[in-house]
């Protein structure tokens, strides 16, 4: 008991919701305008952000990290620069001479600069001092011919260190050459990238202009065409929906049926004629088949062959007839035809026509009302379109002018830049190439010095070998000399390059790559003052009485924010905040401003309908007479049930063909010949009946069935009978008349309101499309940001990075030059020594002052102009003590007066003089170390 009320309570809200949904169902199916989309796929931009460091990326990263160590995130401390209203002024710290924060921030760069300046000043002095020292015999300028005890170890260690230094130096030289070439390539192609950027920017502006024209011009024309078509079809749509809602179209259907009555009568007469023809033809066929059957039975029985019996049994010759069809059972249509004739001659058609004319008059009234107001609505729509087109023309004209101005003002400057680059950049390239070549020359000298010093033999002063250790030492001294001659110049260039590259990368490249809250970008933003420019544009827009008003609120614009927003591929409207002087939202006021909504409301108020009388009482009586006519007696089943297309059980031509075959095989004989002739005659009769009687009967039967079926469908209108259909017509027409008179006015007003609402909705859908496309689709900033990135790549990655890589490679070489000088000077001295370590005893003898310059005085009795064999030369180069000790002995050819009379019992020790005869004992006097006499002058000539 409790569940029923609860179900009822639940059903009531459901019914209310269903009623609301039904009432909310739109009466008219207004088709939305399908706007064509702007196709940007055919637009191709050529700027490229691709970049290949070609193996130098790690160096560039290291260089950038080094620069980050020296430069702070904010390169200019607060209080030193003030940018205001397009002017750059000194800050309060400058006026107060407060340089502490600036020095604190850049102490590292100042320290490096100071060290470099000191090195630039000192290196020539150090080189001069070293040169003078060596000229006076010091600093390795003159060395003993014998190795000291640890010289071999020194040569190995210093050679290894110099090899490491030289190997590292190769990297710096390669970097210098490569970065110099890359930088030149970047400089030569910077204008090409700039041209691509200008071309893409112009293409972007032109594409944006075309998109604006497509949206504000072409799309509005599409909307306007659909709206005009909607207005032209408005009256027909209103009447059609009114007829459908009220079922008044049934009157038209009934009127059309009455108009078809002559056709129905003709169809009935045709059916009557076909029925009569079928009866006659069927009677003729029956008579003929009875005769054929009688003859065939007689002949086939007399034949007696198996084939004759088989034919008689297979085709049931004994039951050959018209398949049992009784054509006399077909209905007689005469009375129905007479009834239709009476209806045609009555006033039924004119009575229904009066109702149709009433409806036509209602249609014409509605149509005339709509047509009178269409020009006003169309005029308002055209005015709106004209205003939108003016806005489109203004915006596209400005964009095209900017594109043309960009092209005209950019290309000539780029051509000038090409001339300057072609004329002057080669000097910078040659300067870098010269520095790199000097580094390479030093490297080559060091490498040759190491090769000769490590692989060559000791110098002996007599051989003709060019790559001995002495040559290696001379290569070392040559490398050191070049270093001292060029160090200051190269260091000055490297220091200047370091300062320029650091400032450029931090001020330009880092700021452009990360413009959000960047100090340099903020200074540029304050200097340009875009907000002041926007204020001027806003004032000009207000004075020009633009169709699109400026927004009430003014949003500030900043350069860094513009770049970041552009990076997100936002529309140009959002990126540049164009609503400050062109508010696209104001386009939503155009329909009301130009009177579209006003004219539509006037149209809705003028559409009215009057009361109508669709059927008069006389028309209703005529229709009732039609309902009770003999057309109700038409029964299609009597035709379809009593008619068949199989007139005979078997095809007569088939039986005739079989009989001819049997006749041909009948045995010969007098009686059998008669049977054969009879069978062929009967076959001929059957073929004639099939052609002349059966086939026409089949055609007539087929036509009769088709006519009866079509007529039955025309009379019943989908109902069970003709009278039920007419009753339904009467009911629906009466209800339609009642609906039009009672609810028609409200229904028409609702339809009109929906039409106006749909019209207005279409307009505002377009307005919203314009607003949404302007804010989100038109001028997406991705291509411009791609140009922006391509310029950064062309300038920073392809010029600034190689520029910083160049000074990094040069500085690397200069740092390695300092130990290389020390190693080179040391090794050059060691490589000049011609004799190995002789032992501690001989070394101690060589410590005397008298022997200090012996290595500079050639032996008097030494061999002159004598070529030795290679083996002897190598042997003697390994130990030259024999030359010094034996060639100076009296055994060699020499003037006798210079011969030493002392005995030659040295036993491997340094020679000592013996007392001559008549001299004091040896214990009292010891000769000094042997002196050297070069011999007579004639021996040297």
Walkthrough of the structure:
It is elongated, with a radius of gyration of 61 Å. Mean pLDDT is 75; it is low at 1-24, 847-910, 912-926 and 936-941. The protein is built from 28 helices and two strands. Helix 7 (234-246) crosses helix 24 and helix 9 runs antiparallel to helix 23. Helices cover 69% and strands 1% of the residues. With 941 residues, the chain is mainly α. A hairpin with a 2-residue loop joins strand 1 (81-84) and strand 2 (87-90). The chain has a two-stranded antiparallel sheet.
Record keyword descriptors for this entry.
28 helices; 941 residues; disordered N terminus; 1% strand; two-stranded antiparallel ribbon
Question: How does the SSE layout of this entry go?
Answer:
Blueprint: H1 3-24, H2 57-70, E1 81-84, E2 87-90, H3 92-95, H4 100-105, H5 107-135, H6 151-232, H7 234-246, H8 249-259, H9 261-303, H10 306-314, H11 334-345, H12 348-455, H13 469-513, H14 519-528, H15 530-543, H16 559-567, H17 572-575, H18 590-593, H19 596-606, H20 617-627, H21 637-642, H22 652-664, H23 670-716, H24 722-776, H25 782-831, H26 840-845, H27 870-878, H28 881-886
Antiparallel strand pairs: 1-2
Signal peptide: 1-24
Keywords: Glycoprotein, Membrane, Signal, Transmembrane, Transmembrane helix
Family: Belongs to the prominin family.
């Amino acid at each position: 008991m409790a569940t029923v009320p609860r179900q009822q309570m639940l059903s009531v809200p459901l019914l209310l919701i269903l009623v609301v949904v039904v009432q909310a169902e739109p009466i008219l199916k207004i088709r939305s305008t399908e706007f064509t989309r702007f196709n940007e796929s055919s637009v191709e931009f050529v700027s490229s952000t691709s970049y290949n460091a070609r193996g130098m990326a790690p160096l560039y990263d290291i260089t950038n990290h080094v620069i980050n160590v020296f430069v702070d995130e904010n390169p200019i401390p607060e209080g030193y620069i003030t940018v205001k209203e397009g002017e750059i002024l000194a800050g309060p710290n400058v006026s107060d001479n407060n340089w502490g924060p600036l020095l604190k921030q850049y102490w590292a760069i100042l320290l490096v600069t100071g060290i470099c300046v000191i090195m630039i000043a000192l290196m020539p002095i150090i080189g001069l001092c070293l040169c003078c020292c060596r000229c006076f015999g010091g600093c390795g300028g003159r060395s003993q011919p014998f190795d000291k005890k640890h010289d071999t170890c020194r040569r190995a260690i210093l050679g290894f260190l110099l090899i490491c230094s030289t190997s590292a130096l190769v990297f710096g030289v390669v970097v210098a050459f490569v970065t110099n070439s890359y930088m030149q390539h970047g400089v030569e192609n910077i204008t090409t990238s700039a041209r691509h950027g200008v071309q893409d920017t112009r293409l972007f502006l032109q594409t944006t202009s075309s998109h604006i024209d497509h949206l504000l011009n072409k799309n509005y024309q599409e909307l306007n065409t659909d709206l005009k078509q909607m207005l032209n079809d408005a009256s027909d749509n209103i009447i059609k929906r009114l007829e459908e809602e009220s079922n008044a179209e049934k009157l038209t259907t009934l009127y059309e049926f009455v108009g078809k009555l002559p056709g129905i009568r003709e169809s009935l007469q045709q059916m009557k004629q076909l029925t009569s023809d079928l009866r006659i033809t069927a009677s003729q066929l029956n008579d003929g088949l009875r005769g054929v059957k009688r003859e065939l039975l007689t002949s086939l029985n007399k034949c007696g062959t198996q084939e004759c019996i088989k034919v008689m049994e297979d085709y049931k010759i004994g039951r050959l007839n018209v398949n049992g069809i009784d054509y006399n059972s077909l209905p007689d249509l005469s009375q129905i035809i007479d009834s239709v004739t009476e209806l045609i001659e009555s006033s039924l058609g004119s009575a229904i026509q009066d109702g149709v004319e009433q409806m036509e008059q209602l249609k014409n009234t509605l149509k005339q009302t709509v047509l009178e107001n269409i020009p006003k609505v169309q005029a308002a729509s055209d005015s709106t379109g004209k205003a939108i087109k003016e806005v489109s023309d203004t915006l596209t004209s400005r964009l095209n002018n900017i594109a043309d101005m960009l092209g005209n003002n950019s290309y000539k400057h780029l051509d000038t830049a090409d001339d300057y680059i072609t004329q002057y950049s080669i000097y910078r390239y040659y300067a870098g190439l010269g520095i790199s070549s000097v580094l390479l020359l030093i490297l080559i000298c060091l490498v040759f010095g190491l090769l000769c010093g490590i692989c060559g033999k000791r110098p002996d002063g007599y051989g003709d070998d060019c790559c001995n250790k002495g040559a290696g030492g001379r290569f070392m001294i040559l490398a050191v000399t070049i270093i001292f001659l060029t160090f200051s110049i190269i260091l000055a260039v490297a220091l200047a390059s370091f300062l320029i590259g650091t400032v450029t990368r931090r001020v330009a490249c880092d700021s452009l790559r990360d413009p959000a809250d960047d100090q340099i970008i903020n200074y540029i933003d304050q200097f340009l003052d875009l907000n002041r420019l926007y204020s001027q544009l806003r004032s000009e827009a207000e004075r020009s009485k633009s169709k699109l008003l400026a927004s009430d609120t003014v949003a500030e614009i900043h350069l860094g924010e513009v770049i970041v927003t552009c990076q997100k591929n936002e529309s140009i409207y959002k990126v540049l905040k164009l609503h400050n002087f062109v508010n696209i939202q104001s386009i939503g006021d155009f329909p009301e401003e130009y009177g579209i909504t006003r004219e539509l409301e006037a149209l809705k108020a003028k559409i009215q309908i009057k009361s109508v009388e669709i059927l008069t009482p006389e028309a209703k009586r005529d229709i009732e007479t039609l309902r009770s006519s003999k057309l109700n007696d038409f029964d299609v089943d009597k035709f379809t049930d009593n008619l068949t297309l199989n007139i005979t059980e078997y095809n007569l031509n088939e039986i005739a063909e079989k009989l001819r075959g049997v006749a041909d095989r009948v045995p010969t004989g007098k009686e059998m010949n008669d049977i054969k002739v009879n069978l062929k005659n009967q076959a001929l009769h059957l073929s004639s009946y099939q052609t002349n009687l059966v086939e026409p009967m089949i055609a007539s039967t087929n036509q009769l069935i088709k006519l009866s079926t079509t007529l039955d469908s025309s009379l019943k209108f989908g109902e069970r009978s003709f009278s039920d259909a007419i009753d339904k017509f009467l009911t629906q027409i009466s209800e339609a008349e009642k609906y039009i008179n009672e609810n028609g006015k409200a229904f028409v007003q609702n339809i009109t309101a929906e039409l106006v609402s749909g019209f207005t909705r279409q307009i505002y859908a377009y307005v919203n499309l314009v607003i949404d496309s302007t804010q989100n689709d038109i001028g997406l900033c991705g291509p411009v940001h791609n140009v922006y990135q391509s310029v950064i790549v062309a300038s920073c990655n392809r010029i600034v990075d190689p520029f910083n890589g160049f000074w990094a490679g040069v500085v690397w070489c200069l740092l390695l030059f300092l130990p290389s000088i020390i190693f080179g000077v040391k090794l050059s001295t060691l490589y000049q020594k011609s004799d190995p370590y002789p032992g501690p005893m001989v070394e101690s003898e060589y410590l005397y002052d008298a022997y200090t310059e012996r290595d500079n005085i050639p032996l008097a009795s030494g061999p002159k102009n004598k070529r030795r064999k290679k083996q002897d030369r190598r042997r003697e180069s390994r130990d030259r003590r024999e030359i010094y000790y034996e060639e100076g002995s009296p055994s060699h050819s020499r003037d006798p007066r210079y011969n030493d009379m002392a005995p030659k019992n040295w036993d491997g020790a340094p020679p000592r003089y013996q007392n001559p005869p008549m001299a004091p004992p040896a214990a009292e006097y010891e000769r000094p170390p042997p002196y050297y006499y070069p011999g007579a002058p004639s021996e040297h000539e």
